[in-house]
Amino acid sequence: MRLDPAALQRPVPPGAPEPLAEPDRDALRLEVVMGALSDPLRMRIVRTLLLESEAFDHTCGWFGLDRPKSSLTHHFRALREAGLIRQRQYGLERRSHVRVADLEARFPGLLGLVADWQE
User: Fold this and answer.
1) Which of these, 25, 16, 40, lies nearest to 96 by C-alpha position?
2) Is 29 helix (H, G, I), strand (E, B) or coil?
3) Cα 3 from Cα 15, distance rounded (Å)
4) Domains of the chain with bracketed CATH
């Protein structure tokens, strides 16, 4: 599937908090990104954000994953630290979205492969 990064980008809402710490675009490393995607749950999270996003960003609860909160925290942190998602802290909750423009610039076609992935 060929993804249109511009169509997947959502504008940052006014007053959105700054993103949590993440690697810069130029610091994204393919082996780290692929390592994060090697877990099927993390691949599913990224794919869901790519294909089913309804808003700028989403809470962990939006995914409907039947996992302990500590497990989800670990998976979302791994995705953020690898540079796949951007997270912002809204009070007690973190909301996430895929870093489409950064990933397409560094690894063209990678997100299309993720979108085509089947469990």
Assistant:
1) 16
2) coil
3) 29
4) 27-116 (1.10.10.10)
